[in-house]
């Protein structure tokens, strides 16, 4: 006899919490990739490629600060969302 298989169902709240946790785990990887981007920018070379403009150091520093600010804000957003979901789950368990 074949048993009736029940479809896999995840609660919406636990599914969202898992996706937020996954995003929080991937945030450092995203940050490392974004911080490696300046290594791909062209450097100043005397006569090799005169049509390619080099990126100034100040632009690179502003980019790094912008990435750092973005990562900090994303971490704040994810932590607030995870905390709100945990509180909602605690209230739902009572």
Automatic annotation (TrEMBL):
- Answer yes or no on keyword Transmembrane: yes
Q: Which UniProt keywords apply?
A: Membrane, Transmembrane, Transmembrane helix
Which top-rank group of organisms is this from?
A: Bacteria
Q: Which residues cross the membrane?
A: 20-41, 61-82
Name of the protein in its database record = DUF485 domain-containing protein
UniProt source species: Seohaeicola saemankumensis
